[in-house]
Write a structure and sequence with these properties.
Length: 185
C-alpha cells in the first residue's frame, strides 16, 4: 500500500492526466459549437455571397449600358450588333452565343474604347443578354441583364421591360435614348 492509502487520504491525480482531460473537454466543446453554429451560419454566409454577386451583376449591366450610351453619343447610333442593324439588335447569350460580347468590336475598339475592360459574363457564368430597340415605341431603348443565380432567363419580355422590371432573380439595367444615366433593379 502506498502512504496515501495508509493515511486514508486519496492520492492526487497527476497533472498530466488533468491537462489531457481539459484538452479533451475543450475539443469536445469546440466540435459541439461548430456543429451548432456551422449550420446556422452557412445560409447567412451564402446569402451574403449571393448579394455580392447580384450587386456585381447590376454594376456590370450599368457599365455596359453606359458604354452603349457613350457609343451612341459619339457615333449618333448604337452598335449594329449581330443583326447588323443599329436600331434593332439583340443577343440572349444562349446556345454558345456571346450575348453582350457580340458588341465587343464596337465597345472595345478604337482610339477611345467605350468599355475599359470586357465584362460579358455574369458572376454565375452566363453571358449577359442585351436588347437594343430604337425603331418602335413604347419599348425601352436598351436593356442589359443577367439571368441571375439560377441561370434561367425569366425576363425576355418587352412589356416587363416597359415597367422597368425583371422577373425571377434576373437583374440588369435600362436606358432610354433621352436618358443620360441607366436605371437598374
Amino acid at each position: 500500500m502506498t502512504a496515501a492509502s495508509d493515511t486514508g487520504v486519496l492520492a492526487r491525480p497527476s497533472r498530466r492526466g488533468l491537462v489531457r482531460g481539459e484538452v479533451a473537454v475543450a475539443i469536445a466543446l469546440c466540435v459541439l459549437a461548430a456543429g451548432i453554429v456551422g449550420p446556422l451560419a452557412a445560409p447567412l454566409i451564402s446569402d451574403l455571397l449571393v448579394r455580392e454577386d447580384v450587386a456585381r451583376a447590376q454594376q456590370d449591366c450599368r457599365t455596359i449600358v453606359e458604354a452603349l450610351a457613350r457609343y451612341h453619343s459619339e457615333h449618333g447610333a448604337y452598335p449594329p450588333g449581330a443583326q447588323g442593324n443599329a436600331v434593332y439588335n439583340y443577343d440572349r447569350g444562349e446556345l454558345g452565343r456571346g450575348g453582350v460580347a457580340e458588341l465587343a468590336p464596337w465597345l472595345l475598339s478604337g482610339s477611345r474604347p467605350h468599355l475599359a475592360a470586357a465584362c460579358w459574363t455574369d458572376p454565375w457564368g452566363s453571358n449577359y443578354s442585351y436588347h437594343v430597340c430604337t425603331q418602335t415605341e413604347p419599348f425601352v431603348d436598351i436593356v442589359v441583364y443577367s439571368r441571375g443565380p439560377d441561370g434561367v432567363d425569366d425576363s425576355w419580355d418587352g412589356l416587363l421591360w416597359n415597367q422597368r422590371s425583371f422577373a425571377g432573380d434576373d437583374v440588369g439595367a435600362f436606358l432610354e435614348a433621352a436618358d443620360s444615366a441607366s436605371r437598374g433593379r
